[in-house]
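Shape is hard to put into words, and the shape of a protein is harder than most. The fold becomes a row of whole numbers, each drawn from a learned catalogue of backbone shapes. The outcome of that step, for a single protein, is printed below.
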Amino acid sequence: MINTGKPFALNEQGRRNNNEDSIYPLQNEADGTNRFFIVCDGMGGHEKGEVASRIVCDSFAAYLRDVPPCEFNETVFIQALNHAYNQLDRENDCPDPAKKMGTTLTFLYLNDKQAFMAHIGDSRIYHLRKNERGKTEIVYKSSDHSLVNELLKAAVITQEEAERHPKKNMITRVIQPNMEKRSKAEICITQDLQAGDRFFLCSDGVTESLTDAQLCDIAAGNDDEAMIKAIRTECEAYSHDNFSAWLVPVVDFIPPDEQSEIIPSCEQTETLPADKVNPEEKAEITFPPRRTKKKSKTKRLILLLFLLALLTLAAWFLCHGDGGIDITP
């Protein structure tokens, strides 16, 4: 079971003429009861990008509103994503494919068992954690669907060249209406959660203002509100784009194998089985290694005493039983 603290958000116009970013829930409308969060960075010119990002946020919200957390899974996410695509198709009024509106997507869903993260485009998701020395580290960072990142992974360019590449804003996956082949989401599912972890979803207006190292330095403090204010300050100083984000702190996590007596039963509703989903629309999915629980000292002591008793009993039978070994000279 995942318990979260109060989430904090940014959704700012920045130095642009209008704000094409959208978030869900709306800023200042989230508390510790919210299960899912979205950041979308729209594109397509004045107002059109704003329309695309808001349609996607609203479509996910409408589709998932009545889905109990215990029923949420990859199939439900794909259905919600397709619902968002369908809504964009209905709103599209641009015959020129090169000028169609579109948006990126970052998505986080926290249910009773795991954190489900998905993204399309170059908006980003971080899973942050403090180590035993109090230093914040990145447990997971989504990989941008961008031309520059593909060149970087292929070792065609260096990190330094990537930072000043003239096409660094060109993305390779996007949510757009009337696509011949809809972009798939890349998904990460994890149960590796600890109290004090933070999830951070953001548009590229934030990542252009902060390096990963700077983000970790800002996250070194324990105050979530102070962290989001510090990020706002950096973006106001260095970002040339809209900048939006969600910061979601994890207060507590009870692993699934300790929840059997406290998770309420959940009535199953009909959802499309995973094997019935169009293979081209299935998401790319990765599973980080699951954390292995250490046995308690008490359990180890009981096991050791039990083994010693078995060995003692076996030795007695060997020496005194009818079929025992004769050790007299």
Notes: Confidence is low (pLDDT under 50) at residues 260-297, 322-329. The first strand starts at residue 2 and ends at 4. The chain has two domains: 2-292, 294-329.
